[in-house]
Amino acid sequence: MAVPVTQADVVVVGGGSAGATAAIRAQQDLPPGRVVLLEKAHVKRSGAIAIGMDGLNNAIVPGHATPEQYVKEITTANDGIVNQRAVLAYASRSFEMLQQLDRWGVKFQKTESGDFDVKKVHHQGRYVLPMPEGYDLKKILTRLIKRAGVQVRNRFAATRVLVDRGRAAGVVGVDVRTGEVSAIRAKAVILCSGASGRLGLPASGYLYGTYENPSNAGDGYSMAYHAGAELTGIECFQINPLIKDYNGPACAYVTGPLGGHTVNARGDRFIQSDYWSGQMMLEFYRELHSSNGPVYLKLTHLAPETLGEIERILHRTERPSRGRFHLGRGHAYAEDSVEMHISEIGLCSGHSASGVWVNERGETTVPGLYAAGDMACVPHNYLLGALTYGHICAENALGYASRVEAPTDEADLEDQAATEQSRILAPLSRPRGVPHHQYEFKVRRLVNDYLQPPKTANRMTVGLEYFQRLRHELEEVGANDPHEVMRVAECGFIRDCAEMAARASLFRTESRWGLYHYRLDYPESNDAEWFVHVNLKKDRDGEMVLTKRPVEEYVVPMTREELAGYRRLRVHARDNGAVEGVRP
Amino acid sequence: MSVLEDREVAKAAQARRVGNAQTVRVYDVPVIVDLAKCITGCRICIDSCPVDCLAVNPETKKAHMRHDECWYCLACEIDCPKDAITVKIPFLVR
Amino acid sequence: MATQTTDELRAALSDPNATRRQLALIDRADDIGVEDLSALIAAAAGDTDPTVRRLAVGLLEELGDARALPAVVSALADADPGVREAAQSAVREFRGQGALHALVAATVHEHPEVREWAVIGLRELRDEAAMNALLTTLTDPVAAVRRAAVVSLAYLRNSGCAPALLARLEDEDAGVRRLAIAALARTSSPESWATPIARRLSDVNWQVRAEAAQALADSRAPDAADPLIRALDDDHWQVIKAAVVALEALRAHESIKHLLPLLRSPASDVRRAAAEALGHLGAEAARSGLIQLASDGDVEVRKAASRALDQLGKAQPV
Prior knowledge:
The complex is a heterotrimer.
Chain A: E1 5-7, E2 10-13, H1 17-28, E3 35-39, E4 55-56, H2 67-77, H3 84-103, E5 129-130, H4 137-148, E6 151-154, E7 156-164, E8 167-175, E9 181-185, E10 188-191, H5 219-226, E11 231-232, E12 241-243, H6 252-255, E13 261-263, H7 278-288, E14 295-298, H8 304-314, H9 322-329, E15 338-342, E16 355-356, E17 369-371, H10 382-403, H11 410-425, H12 436-451, H13 457-473, H14 482-507, H15 527-530, E18 532-538, E19 544-550, H16 560-576
Parallel strand pairs in A: 1-9, 2-3, 2-10, 3-6, 10-17
Antiparallel strand pairs in A: 4-5, 7-8, 8-9, 11-16, 11-18, 12-15, 13-14, 14-15, 18-19
Helix pairs in contact in A: 1-4, 1-10, 2-3, 3-10, 5-14, 12-13, 12-14, 13-14
Chain B: H1 3-15, E1 31-33, H2 44-48, E2 54-56, E3 63-65, H3 75-79, E4 85-87
Antiparallel strand pairs in B: 1-4, 2-3
Chain C: H1 6-12, H2 18-28, H3 37-46, H4 50-63, H5 69-75, H6 81-90, H7 97-106, H8 112-123, H9 131-137, H10 143-155, H11 162-167, H12 174-187, H13 190-199, H14 206-216, H15 225-231, H16 237-249, H17 256-259, H18 268-280, H19 287-292, H20 299-314
Helix pairs in contact in C: 2-4, 3-4, 3-5, 4-6, 7-8, 8-10, 9-10, 10-12, 12-14, 13-14, 14-16, 15-16, 16-18, 18-20
């Protein structure tokens, strides 16, 4: 059966934040319908911020912070290993995007005189801009996508990028309702599929009780990998402090400015780090496993009026069901501190620094292939980074598409689509095969067993063997309908991410980024050998190969003192955190 | 080899050939739809769900949670025009 | 999904069965266009079923056409809370001259919730033409309207509003007083408000007192030091903390002896703020107190004390 083809100029994969601004921007310069936006769910409720967001963590507003200051903070928070140009590109255009969002009607917290009400949470600049009414963010973005004339395909899960002699030529995917496989051909492909959020298994054992939107299953990481693009920082895991069991964010960025504290079991604050980083998570981890644990979010010292304000924000946007979670446990912020825990591991460049390698134009190493948002490595870029880079990718994709010729090898592209169709639909021939959720539980449990920090080569090597074995076991998994076809495809993405995480972690024989890549067998940082990016890609033989990529000379110079800052913090935390059984 | 060891070797080989068997297992699911309020023909919650776990129940012709794959995000509950949906925190989590 | 035409929608909206009318709007949602405006307006204002009215208001918000405003405005006074909530969301999405006139007219509506949300709707328009209407709502009998009015006026950033805002410092509603303090501090020069806001440091409401202290940090008014020092005895740690920060900002060295005991406050955020202030003020007398804080249970206090001691090391003793 021939795979039906839609022609477009630009195809955007993923209709979350990055995908929305990418599609809107691209469509501005193109005839209606020539931008196709593919979303495996529905754009009105898709992506990491399906229910909105209660604030921006990294807005750079003149008068409160400068782009240079921001680049320095990110460089420090990420232990020096950043593509500063890419971070600076975000920082320089962040305010312009903020103003655009404001004009579009997105509601940011403003002072009584109508200025952006930026709060100080970080050590140097002020970057936090609350959005207590961020619950209507998706409504506004959806409206804009529609008004722009973008051709939206909801319930369509892209699974592979089409490649024509090393250049992106479109995507193949499956309609999650009808089960029909089709191809979208375009000269430029912008991947905005979000984080790898179903990698580790949550402590609850509930597969979908993840920190990230579970639909963000690492699709883009896998797609980019199979298209031959380089990924980077995969060993720099995302590990977040969350409300235990509920597994939602504790929202330090919301509660912090309002006076909330992260404390140990004695009720004392203990985090030495001044900014969100793997280093901070290592301190958190140590306290959790010490006699001072567990760790709590403490709001009991706040006035009833302030608690009301916190509830109005937290129980209406991002993860509003936390209200009923606390009530179900019989807990109230006024009397009870909220127990916190460490999340399952994931891959994400919104909060951490792993993703597809991109430059300051959003270009991956495959011509015509762009990436933005949580899946594109611009460290700690969060929501505003996703929105800004969606825009940047679209600008550049338009330029690229206008310059290059359309691919000519139709036969090969049809072949790729047909091969992919067989691959995606194969599970339907095994209706009594292993159900996807059992396969998934197994992969993710093994991820926990063998990749959860603190890491060791011995454990990760054993894990890698299992992940490779799981490649064969995937062929036992069956599906009975299009929904399950999508789930089995996701099993493939998850397995790919697990293998990438194992190999990248094994390759970097040092510790860096605090808990994110903490190795018991190489507990020190080794700048002499490892002040590099660790990149991986699929070579011509289909093997996963790892390389070192030098860190480019900084465009925002750091003083020796500033660079030493993060080292000092690590030493300090190590000395303070010596705990039995956890070697510093 | 003893009888026991022979048996294990033989059964391990057989295990690779015998194929699959399945059972039906019941899951308590988080999303509860009030059938009195739910409008037949409205698909808002099914369209809203970020994880595609809601569908029309062929028996009642109204919405129900088809897969225990809930992110307890409340999209369905918030978007339902009839306030027909109650989302519980999943049992394993609450 | 069946796509209806606008005529089909209009016909469906006169179906006696409410569920069918609801479905008609649900089905049309993805294709709604300006040709549906009059049908939606009629449904929002006149349908007997609240779900239909609520859906219609939501779709009017999607269209964003200011001709819908009169219907949205009356929906602000709907008997059904769901419809009112939809209207409250919608009323802020309209822009332009048409919106301005409709919203200004609504500021004198008999229903207080309508007046309140009309004032909120005017906020992002930031149009001076609304100023007189907003000034009138500053003395509305209902506090919620006055609270909204303070902020919407302040958005205009017109220092001519200062006298009217100053009058609100004596409002009977604490929320109004608090918002007025913040509005004045951000839109007018301190000479006009430093003294009256300093009086609010003895307000009955702690949030007003805290807001006053925060505002005074930017006042550059030496007279503010005495009332701020008195505020260090407040029963709310939030007020004490704000007063400490303000005294530091005012470089009020005479407050040092009053700040010293705060290094032992039961509230960790007060200990932290006091340590920071004493460091910035170069208070040599604080040295032994700061040294003791090296063993404070709270890391933020320890960090602040350590930084303050660094500063004392660098500065000339006071």
